[in-house]
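Thread: LysR family transcriptional regulator (Chromosome initiation inhibitor), structure

OP (GT): Posting the sequence first so everyone is looking at the same thing. Length is 299 residues per the record. Can we get the structure tokens written out before standup tomorrow? I want them in the notebook alongside the other entries.
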Amino acid sequence: MGDAVLDYAALAALAAVVREGSFERAAQALHVTPSAVSQRVRLLEERVGCALVVRGQPCRATDVGQHLCRHLAQVRLLEHDLQDVLPVAAPTAERARLPVAVNADSLASWFAPAAAQYAATAQVLLELTVDDQDHTAERLRSGAVLAAVTALAKPAAGCNSQALGTLRYLAVGSPAFMARHFAEGVQARSLALAPSLLFDRKDQLQARWVRRQCRKAVPLPCHLLPSPQAFIEAGLAGMGWGMQPLPLVQPLLAAGRLVELVPGTPLDVPLYWQHARAASALLDGLGRAVLVAARAALG
């Protein structure tokens, strides 16, 4: 693509539509009219020769649109870096946006404090997307984010990968739930009848633990609870058993409010920090903060 294609006002309009979810909200964020945003996006689509936005509620980027949004995010990061080394680069009050994908359990435990501490001192706005740790790398490959906490060690194309540590999960339920459903032991038959908890349809932790214990797949009845806090509360209330992250439930285990289905059978999930190789001080700074926090919190 040449300079005539990469019109940065049009790229900013595209990114705003994707970020805000509609042309109207994008116009408000950019302080222009919705027709101006629409015109800029349409002109960019004509120049690249394909659709960049799927119009809907909300609007979302196509694959090419995601790559262009990531390109703009990288350019904005590099522009901020220039302010420290190039005297003629005028400082801007606008903070750079840094899109990151992270799994919900990391966000609810060790990642959020690290992100908050970093954002308090950096000229950046973090845009966190939550997905299963086995799928966050897909968002990195698609161009939707510049960095991700992922369970995949192999780096995506154009990215680096660094080990963060291991997030330990335990299969737990309330004492009353255990007495009601596993009085005769935890086995394939009882697991096939006892309700389990599932974060979302991508969540394979319960199935992985059961395969390890039973040496075979067992169909599990499940409740869907796409919230780490609700997941814990449901377990405490005896709604079902589930794979709970040790950092979040350790006090509950110590107090006896939750117990392991089979003591001493953890499921360890190695986590990695993958990030685009674009040399950016802001992205590097976030990476350092994430690595320090993860290595203090994870095994």
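GT: Both are above now. Quick notes for whoever picks this up: The mean pLDDT is 90. The radius of gyration is 23 Å.
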